[in-house]
From TrEMBL:
Alphabetic keyword roster: FAD, Flavoprotein, Oxidoreductase
Pfam family, one: Acyl-CoA_dh_1
Membrane-spanning residues: none
Molecular function as annotated in GO: acyl-CoA dehydrogenase activity; flavin adenine dinucleotide binding
Organism annotation: Bacillus aerolatus
Protein name, as recorded: Acyl-CoA dehydrogenase
Domain Acyl-CoA dehydrogenase/oxidase C-terminal as annotated: residue spans: 229-376
UniProt family annotation: Belongs to the acyl-CoA dehydrogenase family.
Length: 382
């Protein structure tokens, strides 16, 4: 197992770090206040190739493996999580379906524009009655000639207001349960496609969530992703393949919180000494550092497994669970180390604390990851 980054990736990683530190960090407070990512930052991200992080070189992307991607995601995670989510959702669940399951015609049609950031990707699985139980979809797709007609409502869709291309799961045969679900590539300009209510939330400001309403939405048959009946399996694969990237972003955020916390603990004087000299504070920092180092090793191990095309169902679920829990534990300790200022909105700690919370919910809750792990253990020990 070799996690050594080649020179090209190291170069890219340095460039991304410079961009995050010198440009995105400067506008973090602005993103929080305005609930918008400045257009200049989006344009610079395009120039750096960040929108093509998951796309092969032949379609205009960076063409890097999962270990390389995680190295860049770690940098992208070390800033405002609204920005991290814009890039993460596009390059993760918004793009992976077409890259991994798209046919040549679909890849040529969609990926170059997505790699350049001219068209943004999103993933639309969740519905009011289908959250953790994604087999309970109510959105239907009925074949009529050379089109499918989609009807239904999706909610909580990340990038819904920015995205142009959606991977949408809908029921084509209700009698077959999970095997009756099909995935489609849906363009926002297709007739009958509407972005619904904007959904305000606890954190992730700058990243917009909204409903998607499909009203007799016309999708050409050539936009079926892989084949009819494969939609549920596709959704699970997309989510599993996205998990190393999500963990790497959580890792970047956690490392940022440790950096801020150690620096603060060395500067803040109470009882005539820097608070890092109080053992209770020092131990919190040690626990944060151990969690982060364990997450780093685990993330790159799973990324390596992805690159080696090994089966990752159990490990991806473990990593999703562990990465989210570590980020939440670290954020909680970061608030504690900072004391009152950790709770004050002029300082970034409380923002990370709020933003960390969603990682235990989206792309499969922590409880669902435990169910997946237990299911795999059950099989292994049978
Ligand atoms: C900010 C945000 C962004 C999102 N982005 C997207 C997106 O881009 N695309 C998309 O499709 N979806 C998206 N989602 C949806 C997200 O993936 C779901 O919210 C999540 O999967 C949980 O579903 P739910 O909210 O319906 O909760 P529920 O499924 O109702 O779960 C409620 C509680 O019950 C628990 N629970 C449910 N079933 C079980 C079980 N079998 N065993 C143990 N516990 C269980 C859950 O763990 C949770 O604690 C997003 C959500 C949010 C909030």
């Amino acid at each position: 197992m070799n996690f050594e980054l080649d020179e090209d990736i190291q170069f890219l990683k340095r460039n991304v770090r410079d961009f995050i530190q010198n440009e995105v960090e400067k506008v973090a407070m602005q993103i929080e206040e305005e609930n918008e990512i400045p257009g200049r930052i989006v344009e610079m991200s395009k120039e750096l190739g960040l929108f093509g992080l998951s796309i092969p070189e032949e379609y205009g992307g960076l063409g890097i493996g999962m270990v390389g991607k995680c190295a860049l995601y770690e940098e992208i995670g070390a800033t405002h999580n609204g920005y991290t989510t814009l890039i993460g959702a596009h390059t993760g669940i918004g793009t992976i379906g077409i890259v991994d399951m798209g046919n040549e015609q679909q890849k040529k049609k969609y990926l170059p524009d997505m790699a350049a950031g001219h068209r943004i990707g999103a993933f639309a699985l969740t519905e009011p009655a289908a959250g953790s139980n994604a087999t309970n979809l109510k959105t239907t797709a009925v074949k009529k000639g050379n089109k499918y007609i989609l009807n239904g409502t999706k909610h909580y869709i990340t990038n819904a207001t920015e995205a142009d291309i959606f991977t949408v799961m809908a029921v084509t045969d209700p009698s077959k349960g999970a095997k009756g679900i099909t995935s489609f590539i849906v363009e926002k300009d297709f007739p009958g496609f509407h972005v619904g209510a904007f959904e305000p939330k606890m954190g992730l400001r700058g990243s917009h969530s909204a409903e998607i309403i499909l009203e007799d939405c016309e999708v050409p048959t050539e936009n079926v992703l892989s084949e009819e009946g494969q939609g549920y399996v596709n959704a699970l694969k997309i989510l599993a393949n996205g998990r190393a990237g999500l963990a790497a972003r959580n890792l970047g955020s956690s490392q940022k919180l440790l950096d801020l916390s150690v620096n603060y603990a060395k500067e803040r004087i109470q009882f005539n000494v820097p608070i890092i000299e109080h053992q209770a504070v020092a131990h919190m920092l040690s626990e944060m550092a151990v969690d982060i180092e364990a997450l780093r090793s685990f993330t790159y191990r799973v990324a390596w497994m992805v690159d080696e095309r090994k089966k990752i169902i159990k490990e991806a679920a473990m990593l999703k669970l562990f990465g989210s829990e570590v980020y939440n534990r670290v954020a909680d300790k970061a608030v504690q180390v900072h004391g009152g200022i950790g709770y004050i909105s002029d300082y970034p700690i409380e923002r990370f604390y709020r933003d960390a919370r969603i990682t235990r919910i989206y792309e499969g809750t922590s409880e669902i990851q435990k169910n997946i792990i237990a299911g795999q253990l059950n099989k292994e020990y049978s």
